[in-house]
Each structure stands twice: as structure tokens, then as C-alpha cells.
């Protein structure tokens, strides 16, 4: 019997990179205003810079790259493909470029003309690309700004649904080009899917990890031509995946998948925090992969919208098995702080619950409580961030993500509300990248040079972390979200030595906790813990 006539599974080593107009997809490329500014202020300058001197980019790519470094990192010179991408972008993305120009123009108009009086007349000056999508407002100190009507923007022609797609390929190692600076070009053995992220065929494809389908039937659904169908067949296998048994023990089991991704399981329920999961292939480092997830994910919990915590690549692959997604509430129409609920809904998720500080959700056999998340965003007014207390199996586990205990009195109030916990997961990237590495393209007023170094992403150092430990009294303390796993370099560009401040500070915390008789560890690649 031919493979076309029998059912097959999607291989465990198939990676599916989500793309928006050939760029690696993350939250800012889905929200139209931020997508427009990234296109105008990052993508087009990168392409033009590469065409001006591709050898300089190739030379820079051989060295260590920081997050947001303006380097297009291909293995070989790709001037023809980059020129074609630039020409196509200019021809097809004129509306987004007009939107980017309109945002900058309107901010200048507001700065010059909105001095505290009525804004009625300013509406007459709103650039055409923005009309019908913004409300003009003052804050209490009479500073003017625009509020984006986000739901309307996702229903408008400005939402980049037509440019969405996926690139499927077999992977054999950790290495891939930087996510923020290098477009994805078609390559040998790659299957290109020109499908929007919310297409139902996407869920059917990833369900093939465990539920076999006839290859020809699936290829037809995906709209593949004859050449793509042959490449698609190489992504399939007749070997069924090993079964996964749901955890049924006492208490709670935590499985660390790398970075900030932790699966909590208890009898009758589970919660997956900040999914970012590596595919299965030969590796010196042990790790959990997609094969180690339960058949149903009752709750997927997102702490904030950075690309290493809201990881669209993983989320889209998991969507078919997710019952509910929990996200923090946004600031309401701010360009730099898009609604994660609306963004994920546009990407095809259906059951999304938005939570604010101290909101408590009942879940299967447990509860999830949103808590304040201080710091990490370079003092930008980002509201869509939350720490979480997850309760299940009679245990309480606190996820602080990249929270910086910059104001201990906040967490004193939180402790009075939630009480002690059994385990704490805390990020300690206490000297992260500058604010401009991620937000630079959407900052229409550049930072002064003297401010750039102090405005960094950062979590707690040892002293601030120890205050949290003393306050919440966990018996288990785990440092996570440090970006050290080798498969994360394309996304975070972190290579920290033993003398780097985050490593030194986290070592100090682990040692201090152990002296107090606590179980403490900085996590790396893989860890399983049971709290009976």
C-alpha cells in the first residue's frame, strides 16, 4: 500500500515557523500599528542595509549577536532573494507604510496643537490611514495621546492576515537565524504554507502528531502543489508516537521544558505556563519536547507578551489541544501594549480569558490567580503582564516570570492576600537587553543616549529575590527564564558566562536558599519535580 493510501503521522522533528510576510511571527507583527512601525523602522532598513553591503552582514553574523542587532544572518549571500523581498514588500505593504507614517505625523500634530483644549478640531487633521481607528485623549496632566480601537484594526484590511504562513522543515540541531533581524527565505526541503494562522487546516496538521491522516487528503487541505506534496511526504512517518500518561499521583508534578515553560499536573488537571517547547531531535542536552505533553491542556497561562513568553510558534502548534488560554489585561489601546486577548483571537484561539490583578479563575481541580508583575519592561507603561499563583493537588506554585521586586511593599500586600506557597519559579535576568533592542522601532521619540543604558529589561537580583523568598516562604525555589538553553539563541541571543551578573546573582540566591534548608536550583533544559 502506498503512503498516499495509508494514514501517517507528522514527524516529531518537524519544525513549523510562523511567518508574516517572510519575517518570524511574534506579537508585534500581528498588531497592525506595531507591525507598521516595525516594517518602516526595522524590516525595510535591514533589507536595504543588507543590499548595500551583504558581506558586512555576513561578517557580523559570524560573531556574537545581541538581541535586536541590525544584522541579516544568512549562511550564504542572498542578494537576489532579498532584493525580490524588498521590491515585493514595497509593492504590497503600502497601506502599512502609510499607517506608520500616519502614526508619526499624528503624534507630532498632538504635540504641537493639543495643549489642553478640546480635541474636536484635531480629528480633522488625523491622517487618512488612521481615521476610524483611533480616539484622541488627554491624561490627567493634559498630555495628549491616541488610543487605538484594536478590535476594529483586526477586522480591517490593515491586519496582515494575507501575508501569514508557515515554513515546515525537518530540524537536526539548535541553530537557526535570529528571529528579529533575519527574514525566512524558501529553502531546499522546506514546505511553504500560505495559510493564515486561524485556518482550521493548521490545527488538523498539528493534530497529526498523534492522530494519523492520509497524506494526500492533508496535502489537499493545505493546498500543496505536486512539488510541495513530495516534500511534505518527507515530513511524515508511519511510526506512532509513544503514549503519554496523565499524572495521577498525589500533590502536583512540575515539568520544566526550558526557559519559562513549566507544565504543572495534578490529578484531574494541568496548566502550562509560557509555552516555548523544543522539537525532538538528537541533542547532547536532555529535554522535554512536544511528545511529553498530555493529550489535553486545560489551561495555557501567559505571563506577558515578549516573544520568549508569548511564543506564537509553540502556541499555534498546541492550539488544537488547548481548552483555555489565560492572559493578562492590557492597558487598552496603547500601541506598545496591545491586547493579548484580541491578538490571540485573531491568531485563531477561541477561549481566551483576560485577567487583572487578584482575579481568580477556577480550573480543573484547582485555581489560577493573577498577581502584580513589577518591572522588566524598561519603565514603559506595559499593563499586559501578570505573575500567577497556580493551585492544584493541594499545593500552591508561584510563577514570577521576569518580575523585578523593585517595590517590596507591593509583594508584602500580595503575600497578605495569598499566604505562603510551596514552590516559587523566579526569573533573574537582572541585567538584560536595552529597551531599544525590542521596542526601538515603535518608539517614535528616540531615547536620549544617557537614558539608554538604564532603561533595560531586568528581573530581580539576589537581594530582591531573597526578599521574595522570605516573604512567600516556599520550600522549593527555582530560578528559571534565564534564556540559557541552546535552542533559544535565535530568539534571545544570550550567551552568559560564569562571571555574568545574572549567573553570579542567581548562584548567590541558590546558595543562600540552600543554607536555609530549602530546595533550590537554577534550571537548565530539563527538570521534573513532584510536590506530594
Key features of this structure:
single chain, 532 residues, alpha/beta, Metallo-beta-lactamase, Chain A, 3 domains, 7-stranded mixed β-sheet, 29% helix
Q: What do these coordinates show?
A:
With 532 residues, the protein is of the alpha/beta class. It has three domains: 3-92 and 160-237, no CATH class; 94-154, no CATH class; 252-531, Metallo-beta-lactamase, Chain A, CATH 3.60.15. Helices cover 29% and strands 19% of the residues. The protein has 16 helices and 22 strands. The protein has helices at 32-52, 54-61, 79-92, 94-113, 150-154, 200-207, 215-222, 226-233, 312-318, 340-346, 408-418, 436-439, 449-452, 462-472, 489-492, 501-515; strands at 9-10, 14-20, 23-24, 134-138, 144-148, 164-170, 191-193, 236-237, 252-258, 261-266, 269-273, 300-301, 325-328, 352-355, 360-363, 366-371, 387-392, 395-399, 423-427, 476-480, 519-522, 527-531. The protein has a seven-stranded mixed beta sheet with strand order 14-13-12-11-10-9-22, covered by helices on one side. A hairpin with a 2-residue loop joins strand 15 and strand 16 (366-371). Helix 1 crosses helix 4. The longest helix is centred in the N-terminal third of the chain and has 21 residues, at 32-52. It is globular and about 60 Å long.
Amino acid at each position: 500500500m502506498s503512503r498516499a493510501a495509508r494514514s501517517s503521522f507528522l514527524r516529531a522533528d518537524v519544525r513549523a515557523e510562523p511567518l508574516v510576510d517572510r519575517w518570524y511571527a511574534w506579537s508585534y507583527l500581528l498588531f497592525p500599528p506595531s507591525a507598521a512601525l516595525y516594517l518602516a523602522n526595522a524590516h525595510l532598513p535591514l533589507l536595504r542595509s543588507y543590499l548595500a553591503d551583504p558581506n558586512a552582514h555576513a561578517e557580523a553574523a559570524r560573531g556574537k549577536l545581541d538581541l535586536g542587532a541590525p544584522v541579516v544572518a544568512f549562511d550564504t549571500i542572498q542578494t537576489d532573494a532579498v532584493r525580490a523581498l524588498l521590491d515585493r514588500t514595497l509593492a504590497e505593504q503600502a497601506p502599512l507604510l502609510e499607517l506608520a507614517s500616519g502614526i508619526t505625523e499624528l503624534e507630532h500634530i498632538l504635540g504641537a496643537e493639543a495643549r489642553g483644549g478640546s480635541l474636536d478640531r484635531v480629528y480633522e487633521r488625523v491622517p487618512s490611514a488612521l481615521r476610524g481607528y483611533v480616539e484622541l485623549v488627554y491624561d490627567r496632566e493634559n498630555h495628549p495621546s491616541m488610543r487605538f480601537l484594536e478590535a476594529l484594526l483586526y477586522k480591517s484590511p490593515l491586519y496582515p492576515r494575507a501575508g501569514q504562513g508557515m515554513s515546515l522543515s525537518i530540524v537536526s540541531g539548535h541553530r537557526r537565524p535570529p528571529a528579529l533581524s533575519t527574514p525566512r527565505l524558501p529553502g531546499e526541503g522546506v514546505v511553504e504554507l500560505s495559510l493564515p494562522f486561524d485556518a482550521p487546516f493548521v490545527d488538523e496538521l498539528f493534530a497529526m502528531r498523534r492522530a494519523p491522516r492520509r497524506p494526500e487528503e492533508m496535502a489537499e487541505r493545505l493546498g500543496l502543489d505536486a512539488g510541495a506534496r513530495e516534500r511534505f511526504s518527507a515530513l511524515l512517518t508511519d511510526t506512532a508516537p509513544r503514549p503519554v500518561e496523565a499524572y495521577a499521583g498525589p500533590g502536583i508534578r512540575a515539568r520544566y521544558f526550558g526557559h519559562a515553560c513549566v507544565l504543572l499536573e495534578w490529578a484531574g488537571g494541568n496548566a502550562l505556563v509560557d509555552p516555548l517547547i523544543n522539537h525532538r531531535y538528537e541533542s547532547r542536552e536532555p529535554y522535554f519536547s512536544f511528545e511529553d505533553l498530555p493529550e489535553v491542556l486545560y489551561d495555557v497561562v501567559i505571563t506577558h507578551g515578549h516573544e520568549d513568553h508569548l511564543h506564537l510558534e509553540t502556541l499555534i502548534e498546541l492550539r488544537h489541544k488547548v481548552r483555555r488560554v489565560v492572559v493578562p489585561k492590557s492597558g487598552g489601546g496603547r500601541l506598545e501594549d496591545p491586547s493579548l486577548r484580541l491578538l490571540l483571537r485573531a491568531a485563531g484561539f477561541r477561549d481566551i480569558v483576560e485577567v487583572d490583578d487578584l482575579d481568580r479563575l477556577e480550573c480543573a481541580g484547582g485555581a489560577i490567580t493573577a498577581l502584580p508583575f513589577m518591572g522588566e519592561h524598561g519603565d514603559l507603561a506595559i499593563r499586559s503582564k501578570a505573575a500567577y499563583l497556580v493551585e492544584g493537588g493541594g499545593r500552591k506554585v508561584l510563577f514570577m516570570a521576569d518580575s523585578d521586586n523593585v517595590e517590596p511593599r507591593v509583594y508584602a500586600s500580595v503575600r497578605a492576600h495569598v499566604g505562603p506557597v510551596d514552590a516559587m519559579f523566579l526569573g533573574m535576568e537582572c541585567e538584560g537587553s536595552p529597551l531599544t533592542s525590542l521596542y526601538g522601532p515603535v518608539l517614535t521619540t528616540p531615547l536620549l543616549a544617557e537614558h539608554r543604558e538604564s532603561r533595560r529589561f531586568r528581573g530581580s537580583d539576589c537581594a530582591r529575590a531573597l526578599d521574595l523568598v522570605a516573604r512567600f516562604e516556599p520550600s522549593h525555589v527555582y530560578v528559571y527564564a534565564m534564556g540559557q538553553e541552546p535552542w533559544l539563541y535565535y530568539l534571545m541571543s544570550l550567551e552568559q558566562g560564569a562571571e555574568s551578573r545574572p549567573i553570579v546573582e542567581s548562584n548567590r540566591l541558590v546558595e543562600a536558599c540552600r543554607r536555609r534548608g530549602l530546595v533550590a536550583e537554577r534550571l537548565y533544559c530539563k527538570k521534573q519535580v513532584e510536590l506530594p
